[in-house]
## 1
Amino acid sequence: MQVSPSSLASVAGNREQRVPGTNLIGSGLETRGVHAWFGTKHVLSDVSLDFAAGTVTALIGPSGCGKSTFLRTLNRMHEFIPTAALAGEVLLDGKDIYAPGTDVTKIRLRVGMVFQKPNPFPSMTIGENVLSGLKLAQLKKNNTDELLESCLTRAGLWSEVKDRLREHGGALSGGQQQRLCIARSLAVEPQVLLMDEPCSALDPGSTFKIEQTISELAKSMTIVIVTHNMQQAARVSDYTAFFLSDGGPGVMVENSPTSKIFSSPTDKRTEDYVTGRFG
Amino acid sequence: MTLLENKSAEIPAPREITTKPRISDQIFRGVVTLGGMASLVILGLIALFLSIKGFHILSEEKFSFITESRWEVITDENGNLAESNLGIGAMLVGTFLVSLIAILVGVPIAVLSALYLTFYARGFVKKFLISLIDLMAAFPSLLFGFWGFFVFMESAEYWAKLLNKYFSFLPFFDVPAPIFERSPFIAGLVLAIMIIPIVTSISREIFDQTPLDRVQAAYALGASRLTMIRAVVIPYGRGGVVGGAMLGLGRAMGETVAVYTVLNVVYQINWQTLFGAGGNVASLILLKFGEAGPYEVDALMAAGLILFILTLIVNAMADLLINRFGGKGR
């Protein structure tokens, strides 16, 4: 599909551009020279990126370019793959999350994650799913009813499920399940939220609702979203980073304000990708 | 216009949808059905055989066959049957008691080792332990019996005395006389060790299948390994663990040689687990079979039939349990 860059740029331009350092909440995240390997395969090379507090950054690029791998290095989910290795630093509010002696569960509490496929816990009710993080991380909370309502409201799901909190999560539609998963990750009050293609398994209507939710959440946290959908990147993000692999390890080609990436990218390869010449 | 007309027209009856399977498919279906039915037929024939042989004993002894605890067959000088008093009450109680101890002790250990193997053990240790446990599952039960009798008995007796000393206010830890050798407690422990491998294998396989996306979801919410296992793995694996425990229970209930070696077979209903008296149905059959006359053999068949029915009931209950508690976490 050939997309004219100007149409994407105009979508991106519709967003109110936010600039780091102005009234923003959340925690900043910064990577320095991140490399990643699976076994001996070098999949990601030298990625240094800044995610300023309170911004939304989209990671785009063709399949296999390492953007999901990169996302998973940001909350230490990368190391769950048995042969995974990493070099470089990931700084959360200036502190390296891979430093020896770091409590990894605390990192994941501060940097939440929403996955590609909705994955509510089927043994729990809708309400229990939202509050599951408290139990899993062994946090004490007094007013759980209030928390439940506020998380579901922020995820844009409250009005749809408020009378069915005792039903099981599996009874919801795919889009509702994904918003339930967002609500679940909000309950532990993360400062950064990572989203790995959160809409790729959903229909356009659900995608629209999730994008609304993202815009709403962006007011109070830092968001990094991997997406295959360039329109989505244009609609929801302040910054866009373009990843690419030429068969070797993936590299970050360009990171710019979203409107610039889609109107006047600096790199020829970025331009070819956003105009639909490949990918 | 046509749309409206169609609406008023008659709604047709649903068509019958059929397919004609290919010849190869039909043949394969036949082969598979044959295989599937074979086990059912064999099981049915065994039940039938036991029923035919044992029926006249059951109709003669009536209910006392399962409530009374005697085993007397008196023959006159010509070898004809003079009098008989047969009842397997004590053996049924023994079967329950020994199996129950085996399950209570064996299943928790098996579940813990399955969790260890799935989520903690790595590399060589993991491979080694898994093959060791599979090897244990194939171990002849006679060897467990010997080991229980010659090696394990002494220390188990010591534990039994300790339990008796401090917990004798609990009726099942009390004893009528200080005989701690060859008790249901010791037999139960030996059986527990016997069933650990199979329950571990089954639990491990089910834990291994826990969907990765749920595991990762839990970790992404700041779960530790312990809380992740509690929230995700246990609900998912519960049904499978119950199934594995029931297989273990089946093995424990039918176990013959190991129990025969370790347990002191006595015709007296004994609920006191630490006291050296007991027996189970299978070990009774083994004990009596060699020297039994034709009438007594039939009685042993009847005992076998009762054991068979008991096992079926236990398995049916296990299915109910799995359906009731197992499905939710899936």
## 2
Amino acid sequence: MKRMVFGALGALALSVTAAVAEYPEKEIQGIIQWGAGGSTDTVMRSVTPHAEDVLGGKVVLQNITGGVGAIALNQVAGAKADGYTLLMGAENPLLYKVLGLGKKDYSDFIPINVLARGTAILVASPDAPFDDYAGMMEHIKANPGAVRFGSTGPGGLPSVITAMIESVEGGLDVIKVPYDGDGPALTALQGGAIDVMPAVLGASIEFIRAGSMKPLAVFDTEANKNLPDAPTITSFNAGYEAHLPWGPFFGVFVPNGTPDDVVAKLTEAYKVGAENADFIELMDGRGFTMMNISGAEAQDFLTNWQQGTAWLLQDAGLTKASPEEFGIARPAE
Amino acid sequence: MQAFLDIMTIFTQPQLLLLVGLGTFAGVYVGAIPGLSVTMAVSILISFTFSWDVYPALSLMIGIYMGGVYGGSRTAILLNIPGAPSAIATALDGYPLAQRGEAGTAIGVTTVMSFIGGFIGIGVLALAAPFVSDFALTFQPRDYMLLAVLGILLVGSLSQGSLVKGIFAGALGIAIGAVGRDPLTFDERFTFGLPIMENGISFIAVMIGMFGVSEALLQLHHVNKDAVRQKIDKIVPSFATVKKHLPLSLQTSSIGVLIGALPGTGGDIAALMAYDHAKRVTKNPERPFGTGAIEGLVAPETANNAAVGGAFIPMMTLGIPGDAVTAIMIGALFIHGLNPGPMLMIEQPHMFWFIVGALITANFFMLIFGLTGIRLFTKIVEMPRSVLIPLIMLLSIVGAYAVNNAITDVYWMLGFGLFGYFMRHYGYPLGPVILGVILSRLLDDNWRRAIISEREDLGLFFQGILTSPLSLVLFIAVILIFVSQTPIWHKGKARLLGGKAA
């Protein structure tokens, strides 16, 4: 019976559109929002071969960078919604509208899989005259306008973390030195050009292990298993609990209007691909928390993330337009 | 001893040796095609070698890297289109040599000098990596800024003829580099609200247009002139030639290693700085610079290949990429289950020595592939112009498109080609434009970082320069080089040295 139904469905699909029947019948293009060698790139290049095995097709990956990822997003949004163009992105598009970087975001897309989430950590140069978050706050209060924080532009992880600190602690009188990415900023931290950097845990973990930077606080409610000794931010101030867990994430998306069966096939492929033991081990090693969610669950996650972060930035005065204008509701307290 | 055995790993496994060779061969040709970059090739290889072991994957990538940096010189010499940004300075004297019918000699010298430079880079990596990387880390934003200013002063040596026109061209380049969303604040600059400008102007597109298309247009003036016959009897430079240029190549290689090891700068800036250095220290070149001076080939080619070894220094010792290619290799190591970082060299020293071994092998392969097949290559320039000109145009269009797979880049490329043609026509040098574009962000970003770090206080900024030995040395170098290019210096020198200068 089941086989008959599937057969009938198959025949129907074949008669409606031939392309869908045997999806994928040609190479799929995977557009990576960020440059080669970065976190998003590494994650996507590691999971995609496993997904290809399930899909029985080839996904050709390509990095299209620029405009904080907006170039790639707009390109995929403008492509045919047939499942042959995938967007492999990070969290940034959810802030495009409020930061005036673009008119489209993930609401123009169907999430195939939100693969994993990163954890933020506050690291300092080993020579810094404080050893943890509490010490840093005291030092900043005693020496206003002297501590140098690294930043990566509006909407980047450091801007959200500093907005979070300002929202919980009140003002934060520090110098914010801009870098074009957390890699160069972490290099500058080791060279002494900046004192403190809010970074993603995975990018700083090897340096912490080697002692070339020290962790001040992990921005999570519970200790990270990769750095069990680093204190959580909530152990210093419970006020952070309202904003956590928070972190950058990686996901695979297709434009709205993609046929349901194609979405189902891709969802299945990336779900199984993300369960691969090698991939999980790699993600664990880099300090990412596996999520592997899709469908309504992924949609809810995106909505919550956008509401929380957009309003945090709005309250810190970092936005160009209020989230209200785009129908982004303030999260319930 | 163990280190030596690890270096030799590659020679005991024919498969690895073959992969390095294959990579180097592919690299030479990928590098020769403008727009196809080593960065791109290596990132494609990450997916391609995903299921391989880490050694074979690295062998192939290192081969491509070494071959690609060298390969950029090919089209620079033969067609005046640098295959890669690091070959811009090579075109300045390489192309005039090809026009004299000495492309074979130019390629020969380039190959041998790249080989020497490559070795010096690898040598420093193997022997002094921790020392160099510690030094590279001490560069503060203000030092990068001073380095960029030092680079801007090259305008003087890149502009033949009118210095004023050179300064105009350099300023234009800096302005072009600033177009688009500011990478630090994401604000729009010089975009005039046009979406096409938002992503900035691709530097590679400007380079290909200015060199390639303008050259093709210029050649149209003498379509009917016969192509230059190329002498290819003496390709390998004599030992005497190599020996003569050895002191210079040692100096320029050192520049290459250091600039390569700095996390914010790479082979392109290294090659240009080395060219400038050569121009300053060479008292009596056989031919003036810009018309086919051998020193003008020696300097950039030793420097950009030395920068390869240099770029691996912070990567291997600190887990910090020295340039775009090593950034991707760090990603590749992650995917293969390694944790590149400061602990890699302590926990897995064999990986370090394996990479040194692979680089040495790639360097030898580069020499072999570089010195063979020259006859075939020089045939390109011997083609009739009615074939050559469309070929240059085709190569330029494909190259510009390949950078980002964006048709916009092709329009920019053609636009700047046309603009470059008129600039050349009216005696404006093109070198400074490219220099300006390359240095624009280095200068802009680091000036802002430096001044923001000092709470926007100019007094504190200069206090920082004067109290840091490194900044002070760079600052004095900037002043000396600037003054040495002014008439006051020459007058003063003549007066001091009296009869000798006259």
